[in-house]
Amino acid sequence: xxxxxxxxxxxxxxxxxxxxxxxxxxxxxxxxxxxxxxxxxxxxxxxxxxxxxxxxxxxxxxxxxxxxxxxxxxxxxxxxxxxxxxxxxxxxxxxxxxxxxxxxxxxxxxxxxxxxxxxxxxxxxxxxxxxxxxxxxxxxxxxxxxxxxxxxxxxxxxxxxxxxxxxxxxxxxxxxxxxxxxxxxxxxxxxxxxxxxxxxxxxxxxxxxxxxxxxxxxxxxxxxxxxxxxxxxxxxxxxxxxxxxxxxxxxxxxxxxxxxxxxxxxxxxxxxxxxxxxxxxxxxxxxxxxxxxxxxxxxxxxxxxxxxxxxxxxxxxxxxxxxxxxxxxxxxxxxxxxxxxxxxxxxxxxxxxxxxxxxxxxxxxxxxxxxxxxxxxxxxxxxxxxxxxxxxxxxxxxxxxxxxxxxxxxxxxxxxxxxxxxxxxxxxxxxxxxxxxxxxxxxxxxxxxxxxxxxxxxxxxxxxxxxxxxxxxxxxxxxxxxxxxxxxxxxxxxxxxxxxxxxxxxxxxxxxxxxxxxxxxxxxxxxxxxxxxxxxxxxxxxxxxxxxxxxxxxxxxxxxxxxxxxxxxxxxxxxxxxxxxxxxxxxxxxxxxxxxxxxxxxxxxxxxxxxxxxxxxxxxxxxxxxxxxxxxxx
Amino acid sequence: xxxxxxxxxxxxxxxxxxxxxxxxxxxxxxxxxxxxxxxxxxxxxxxxxxxxxxxxxxxxxxxxxxxxxxxxxxxxxxxxxxxxxxxxxxxxxxxxxxxxxxxxxxxxxxxxxxxxxxxxxxxxxxxxxxxxxxxxxxxxxxxxxxxxxxxxxxxxxxxxxxxxxxxxxxxxxxxxxxxxxxxxxxxxxxxxxxxxxxxxxxxxxxxxxxxxxxxxxxxxxxxxxxxxxxxxxxxxxxxxxxxxxxxxxxxxxxxxxxxxxxxxxxxxxxxxxxxxxxxxxxxxxxxxxxxxxxxxxxxxxxxxxxxxxxxxxxxxxxxxxxxxxxxxxxxxxxx
Lengths: 634, 335
What we know:
Chain A is α+β, with helices and mostly antiparallel strands. Chain A has 20 helices and 21 strands.
């Protein structure tokens, strides 16, 4: 067997295992059996004999036992256990590669590993592994073909391999783009459950924010088709209730957002002049949808969206996948149509804060004057710091910030201002989200990181919600390198065009390519509910077909080729009205067939059957073909 | 086009991956599905292109005899200007399963392969529909195209060893010529003087050289003649008749190779005396397609010229009357 073919088989086995390891959730112990691939393939390379059959069988049985233990006890996760099992089997198989069929088994196993990996990761590294896998698989399959033909050494493989690999890459791309997509799949959910935490959280308490501000993990990537001079406040949600220690959202009544032209309507505003943002959210521990200013509409590949009274937008559930959507925002202040008492809620025990507020706002008449004075007071008299000490027992953290430490981060400032505004009779709330972000020159988009997490204040001034940010500028953290920015750009493209490719993208592509030639009609939306029925039916039919196929194979194996087909022929004749009983002999069958006008064929058929069954002569390929064809045509 | 065993497994795997992809909506599984589908599609397209523009030319490399390995030279031409063809198998139409393979045929070129076949019955066979088959590039699908070849191949009767059936061939000196000394002028040989030789025939110069009397022989050499009479009057026992035909062909072959002038007489066909390979194939051509006939139409000679072999279908044959004129009478059943 040529060495290049052995090397390709090894490469495919290693690619499959690598694909699994890059996903992360695998048990590191599984590196040990994976290392078994090295001696296994060295033996194959050196044409050393394969392992003893009993040894391979024993190891396989041990692997299956380990799998059961893994699935039930060790990881308790069948999916991960299957991933572990494939690694062990790859290692065992590397010691038992004899026939070309053994190599094909390695390919199928690698394919299974890639499928499992695709459910466990969305990393761009998977893309790189996939391309290696594709080229190696194409090369191995073509070589396998020539090996089977026995012409491997007589063919110059370089050219056909290069052409077929390029064609495979191209057609894979075309199929990927054109395969019909359903929103969120049909009945299953993605297996990927690892949700990253984000600096943003759905409640504000004081403690761990310092770590968050030092975390450079990317949370959002935003493409802005137009330039804007507006401050980049990526608004998430608002919090209305302060219990003396932390802020929480108690106004949980959410409504399902309506849809117009496939866009979820959040505000009754025209989208014609809205500011467009294309946003990609990493999987975070939240169902909040972010956007600049006030989100008026959202184009997102989800079944539903929910909105609350504060203009915050929510996905139906925390998504384990990256979400990609287009947000349409307006920067006008939104009217406070109803003021719930919660926005004036004020906890007891903050007398010093009340007094301070009274002092600051003394002699000021309008709400905007009071709010601006409070904002300015916080901006100028306090220092930004991530290293805040915990307040002594019994001391309110906000009062500790205002009167003792006099330094803190956004949550301290926003909380203090919101409470001071409330004391001054101005309804207010704390808004959470992200601020700013850095521009990546490679892709002309904005990267928003955990460290950009922020809290600010929204207050009702003259019947409209107005934003105030009392937090002084935070010190600049280390700038990312150009290489990391470029890598991030590649990641964005990977998430945007591969991981996050949707049916909307397909429609846009179709429109783009067909625009100069034809006006295409509006494409119908594929309804998951309707497709579910079709899917279930097809799945059931497919399952039944597979069961029948397997049963027939088992029968053929049990009786042997000649007898299985003979029994089939008997059944066929009986179905046609022949008097076939349990005791009918082959000559009876010929007679009955003659009565039905099939004497000639039946005679040939029985002759072949008797020759194979009783004559001890195996049928040649041509005879088998003839035997089967007579049976088929009846 | 039909899937191979690997192809069926690949199709099932693709189906399962398709179910997983549509079920989860995971684009990375769609990516793998796209790879599987592209391999399937390319298998079909490349296979189609691989077999496109191919043509066949077939000829028998040597005369074809029943039960003897026949070699056919098959030339597969690739008429495509730019695309080569890989792994092309050509199959002989008759169901013998015989195949020949051309691993590579360059564009606008051809490749020759040799294919073997063994025929079990004599006769005239049309080349008919050959099959060109391939499963390039991934062995997932197999496709065959029919390539019709005009022309025929004649399959001659089986040539057997007949020395045991005609012991004279072994026991006597069966030279091709019967030399009849005659007063003619044609030089025959120079030999020792024998009693009774005429003085005028002594070659004095040669005798002086040899130191003994040498005589020049003159005469006329007559070729030995053999007539094979094959009884093919209805009704015939098929099996015995085939044996008779094979015997006739074998006798013709054996005697012509010995230098005899051989004649074949059957119901309706008469191949006059002749010698040499060309004449042998004239006889074999007749024997390859000979079948039973209603009546005997050839002139039945009262007096046989040279040796005569009469091959009768049975003891009751109406041709038995010719037996006295023949040196040998064979019965088909005994052959």
